[in-house]
Amino acid sequence: MMNIKKEVSVKKIITDAENNFRNGFFCCEALVAAIRDNFELDVPDQVIAMASGMAVGAGKSGCMCGAVNGGILALGLIFGRTQQGGPQDPKVVKCMALTHELHEWFRENNGKNSVCCRVLTREFDMGKGEHKEQCIRYTGLCAGKVAEIIIRELGLTNLDEQA
Q1: What is the pTM of this model?
Q2: Which one in 56, 87, 105, 107 has a CA-CA gap of 20 to 30 Å to 68?
């Protein structure tokens, strides 16, 4: 297992993900960068590059929200497998369950009951004004949930819950 910071602030991760988006990353890249940086993961910048094609609903296809895609990539980075092991491999089973948890949580908590980028953004002009603000918010939402899952699963500390 890679080294991971034991104490993080979920609020800071949310803010960093949102600011990463505001400052030039797409949703997916912004989330992956915030998770990598805040958990101090010893992985190269290429993990952010890996997320580039998953933004805007997977290369502007509009299929799945890029923030969710980024969350899935971040969960895979921490909980995924690197060795072949078949469909019942405990590592992949757990990673898939955590991915499903994120997917369903986002669908139920984004106010539009969908994970489809086209559905989430259909009333907006692509990349402008309200569209961008909504995507920034969704990026923060997903980053926070991913951080909570990581903290829970690895028994880490959320500094926001300290007295």
Answers
A1: 0.92
A2: 87
